[in-house]
Amino acid sequence: MDLNADLGEGFGIWRLGDDEALLDLITSANVACGFHGGDPATMHRVCEGAARRGVAVGAQVGYRDLAGFGRRAIAYDFAELRDETIYQLGALDAFCRLYRTRVRYLKPHGALYHAVACDEAQAAALVAAVSGYDYELPLLCPPGSVLAQLAVGAGLRVIAEGFADRNYRPNGSLVPRSAANALVTDPDQIAERAVRMATEGTVVAVDGTVVPCPVESICLHGDTPGAVRSAELVRAALLNAGTTLTPFA
C-alpha cells in the first residue's frame, strides 16, 4: 500500500503543514505546483527532502487560484486546462531533476479533483496533458471516476486513491468540504479507516453504509488538524496489520 500526503502548499513566508515531518512518514508526496499553492522555493525544498528520503514525488496540479486554494470551481477551455497542466508538470519536474529523480505521477487537487471525477471535458484535458507529456505517468484519482475511465481508455495507468481523513457519502463520493462533517480529525479513527481500506477495501460512509473502496494509495491531507500525529498512527497501524508500505510509482 502507498501512503500519500499533500505537501508544499505554502508560498512566500506562509507555510501550510509540516512537510518535513510528513516526509518521514509517507511513501509518496503530492507536491503543489504553484497554481493552488506552492512556489519555486517551496517546490525546490520539498523535492530535495523527498529525494533524500526516497519518497516518490507526484505533481498535484490544480486550478490557477491561489486566493481560493484551488477549491473553487472554474470553467476552463479544454486547451487552456491541458496546457496549464503541462506547465505545472514541467515546473515540478525541473526541481526533481536537480536531485536525479523525476515526477512519478499526477494527482489533481481540490475543485479540479472533484470536477474530473464527473466532468468529461476537464478529465479529457488532464488525460491529454499526461499523454503528451509522459505516457508512462500514472494518474492518482478516485476509483470509477470519469478521469479513471478516460485514462484507462487512453492506455494510461490509473492508481485508485482513498482518503482516511475525509468522510464518504453512501454513493462513494466524498462529503463536500462545505459540510460540517467533511473531515475526520480523530487520529485513532483515521488510522482505523486506513487499515480497513488496506485490508478490506471498504470504508464506512456517514450513514453507516459499508462502501467498496478498493484502493492502492491512501491519502492524508497535510493541512488537516493533527496531520503528523495521524500519519504516525496510520503508518504504525498499517505496518501492524501486515501491510507493506511502498510507493506505487
The average pLDDT value, as a whole number, equals 95
Distance from N terminus to C terminus (CA atoms, Å) equals 11 Å
Largest sheet descriptor: 7 strands, parallel
Helical segment tally? 8
Strand content: 15-25%
What does this structure look like?
It is a single chain. This protein has 249 residues and is α/β, with parallel strands linked by helices. It is 38% helix and 16% strand. It has eight helices and nine strands. It has helices at residues 19-23, 40-53, 78-97, 110-115, 120-133, 146-153, 187-200, 227-240; strands spanning 2-7, 28-32, 56-61, 105-108, 139-141, 158-163, 202-204, 210-212, 217-221. The strands form two sheets. It has a seven-stranded parallel β-sheet. Strand 5, helix 6 and strand 6 (158-163) form a beta-alpha-beta unit. Helix 2 (40-53) crosses helix 3 and helix 5 packs across helix 6 (146-153). The mean pLDDT is 95.
List strands and helices in order, with pairings.
Blueprint: E1 2-7, H1 19-23, E2 28-32, H2 40-53, E3 56-61, H3 78-97, E4 105-108, H4 110-115, H5 120-133, E5 139-141, H6 146-153, E6 158-163, H7 187-200, E7 202-204, E8 210-212, E9 217-221, H8 227-240
Parallel strand pairs: 1-2, 1-9, 2-3, 3-4, 5-6, 6-9
Antiparallel strand pairs: 7-8
